[in-house]
Amino acid sequence: MNDYILKFEKEFEKLCYGKSEDEVFNHFLDIIICCLSGQQYEDEYLAIIGIYSKDKITGFCDLFAELILIMDNDGNGLLDYLGEFFTKHITKGRNGQFFTPIHVCDLMAAITIEQGMTSKTIQDPACGSGRMLLSAAKIERNNYFFGADIDNRCCKMTAINMCLNGLEGEVAWMNSLSQEHWGGFSVKKKFGLIPTIKKLNAGEGILANKKVSNEKVEDTIKVSQTKFEFD
User: Fold this and answer.
1) pLDDT below 50 — which residues of the chain?
2) Which pLDDT value is given to residue 124?
3) Side-by-side strand order, sheet with 181-190
4) CA-CA distance, 161 to 129, in Å (whole number)?
5) Is 213 in a helix, a strand, or coil?
6) Which of 68, 118, 129, 205 is the most buried (most CB within 10 A)?
């Protein structure tokens, strides 16, 4: 895996010639979401790649391929490399963006979730790159996963992590304290098999309308036992 990581970092560095790391990374996330949307956002995809030369477009393809190899995690999946790369190369800890260490996420999931507990709602109101949801999926993936974050880049990473690991749910770009909602992503399996990402507008989606995180504890338990239907 270390070889794949080195190749990823080297390819990303080449793509950044003449552009900021943050801009290239954000474009990379947008390209992946377009690719995982089932051709819903072709115009956006063409607009992004139109900024780059043919060599760099090929570089984005290579970068995506390396990401898939890294996230395969020797066949185990559920590895948050996007989050690791983001904190190391993009934010570098700015704005206090230090994501919870993976082993801590695994511990929290282990003491909260029981194996075989299915069709429940797993929610993280400050999800970062979604690694807490991935840790929950290591125990039981047959649930509905919901994340929210104030940083739209984090929402994109979470949606990608969920989609590439076959998890269904929703990611809201919102302030979980004030309940302001600016958009997000729905991840649903197409034909029950292939997960795809759909963008959500401001005020659209389950988290925007149900406001699960703002319910009383008794109601939250009831909500967690509800099977949501996706549009």
Assistant:
1) 213-231
2) 95
3) 121-124, 144-149, 168-174, 181-190, 194-200
4) 8
5) helix
6) 129
CATH topology of domain 101-224: Rossmann fold (3.40.50)
Single-letter amino acid code for the residue at 216 = K
Angle between the 21-35 and 152-164 helix axes, to the nearest 10 degrees?
40
For residue 118 the two structure tokens come to: 């299915």
Number of residues assigned to the chain = 231
Q: Where in the chain is the domain with CATH 3.40.50?
A: 101-224
In the structure encoding, which two tokens stand for residue 19, read together?
A: 């552009």
Burial string for 42-63 (b: 16+ CB within 10 Å, else e) reads eeebeebbeebeeebbebbebb
Say how many C-beta atoms besides its own lie within 10 A of residue 23's C-beta: 12
Q: Are 27 and 51 in contact (CB under 8 A)?
A: yes
Separation of alpha carbons 89 and 167, rounded Å: 27
User: Residue 176 forms beta bridges with which residues?
Assistant: none
Report yes or no: 21 and 90 within 8 Å, Cβ to Cβ: yes
What pLDDT, on a 0 to 100 scale, did the predictor assign at position 114? Answer: 86
pLDDT given for residue 138 in this prediction: 95
